[in-house]
Design a protein that fits this description.
Blueprint (H helix, E strand, L loop, with lengths): L8 H12 L5 H12 L2 H16 L3 H4 L4 H7 L24 H13 L2 H11 L3 E4 L5 E4 L5 E4 L4 E6 L3 E13 L7 E6 L2 E5 L3 E6 L5 E8 L1 E6 L4 E5 L3 E5 L4 E5 L8 H4 L1 E8 H12 L3 E3 L7 E7 L3 H12 L2 E4 L4 E4 L9
Parallel strand pairs: 5-6, 15-18
Antiparallel strand pairs: 1-4, 2-3, 3-5, 4-5, 5-8, 6-7, 7-10, 8-9, 9-12, 10-11, 12-13, 14-16, 17-18
Helix pairs in contact: 1-6
């Protein structure tokens, strides 16, 4: 385990026990967060102890705790320890205290780091991030920054040897460098390996295509049948699931990562396409009347609220904006630009 200036190996189990028992103050919780973020090994160690602690909830019913029996369960093979005078341990009923249970569990599970090393890889479970109706900006334990688009889900498992993520939907990744662990992203039958990169992946569950856009650096993408392609900065790779075809586009859609940046650049774009992109990014339901189906617009929006964008569109094309509880309708007689 790595330590920082606030924590040492002797104190970490006690601090984790206090946090799990909800008896830590803000300063102690901040210290533990700092320690967890220091390395993937620290985070894995914390997850294991947390899982053991949560599984101990049955102790609340009996108000007893047998240290010898618990030690047997987490020690499947001999571990060298210092010999101590034999003591007889008898379960004793006493007022329930989560901090006592937490401390006892962590003594059993965390007293010997060698014992932890024997089973830590097996005990690490995948962590899931699901966005539902919100766009999520967050960081993974290795400091990789991610932006998860609406209705998307990713699952990650980080070990001392590799960083593996599975994605359904769309997400942007700004990968934290780690010379000792590759970052591997699995999207259905497609595998994306980072080579020092920031990139976006759009893989809707109900779509045949997976679109990979590289903002910086380089990625290598490989299909389950062994087809490979390297993508450099500014390039877009498209994988068709049904036909197992990989293709490359040198000119990316300027609004490919608008959900992340809230920047839109429309160059003579059909109004229908503009409405679809705004619906995707802002989670609204914009529709246009039949008379506007052939309208086009050239404009740029940077971090604007949806109402401000609609006002500009309406002013530019001389449209009327009507709102109901769950719909926004753009109406007009045609595509007449308002004269200056």
């Amino acid at each position: 385990m790595e330590t920082n200036q606030f924590l040492n190996d002797d104190a970490i189990e006690s601090l984790i026990a206090k946090v799990l028992a909800n008896e830590a103050n803000e300063s102690e919780m901040a210290s533990l967060r700092s320690w967890r973020q220091a390395s993937a090994e620290n985070e894995s160690y914390f997850i294991i102890l947390k899982q053991i602690f949560e599984e101990s909830a049955l102790a609340k019913e009996n108000y007893t705790y047998n240290v010898d029996e618990a030690w047997k369960k987490v020690k499947p093979q001999p571990v060298f320890v210092c010999a101590l005078p034999a003591k007889e341990h008898k379960p004793v009923a006493q007022p329930f205290s989560w901090i006592k249970v937490a401390a006892a569990i962590l003594i059993v599970a965390g007293f010997s780091f060698a014992a932890y090393m024997m089973f830590k890889e097996e005990a690490v479970k995948p962590v899931t991030i699901a966005s539902s109706e919100k766009i999520i900006h967050t960081s993974l334990p290795d400091s990789t920054h991610i932006v998860v688009n609406r209705n998307s889900e990713l699952e990650y498992v980080f070990t001392k040897d590799q960083r593996k993520v599975a994605l359904k939907g769309e997400a942007f990744f700004d990968i934290a460098p780690d010379a000792n662990r590759q970052f591997i992203l699995e999207v259905g039958s497609l595998t994306i390996v980072d080579i020092g990169t920031a990139f976006n992946v759009n893989a809707p569950v109900n779509s045949d295509s997976i679109v990979v856009y590289v903002e910086s650096g380089e990625v290598k993408i490989t299909s389950s049948t062994g087809k490979e392609m390297n993508l450099l900065k500014g390039e877009t790779g498209i994988f068709m699931r049904s036909s197992d075809l990989l293709s490359k586009e040198l000119h990316a859609d300027t609004n490919l990562v608008s959900y992340k940046t809230k920047i839109f650049v429309f160059e003579n774009a059909p109004l229908e396409v503009i409405a679809a992109k705004l619906n995707e990014v802002y989670g609204v339901n914009i529709t246009i009347s039949d008379s506007l189906i052939n309208c086009h617009l050239t404009s740029t929006f940077r971090n604007e609220e949806i109402d401000a964008i609609l006002e500009v569109i309406a002013e530019t094309l001389n449209l009327k904006v009507s709102k109901t509880a769950n719909k926004i309708v753009l109406e007009g007689s045609g595509c007449n630009r308002k004269e200056d």
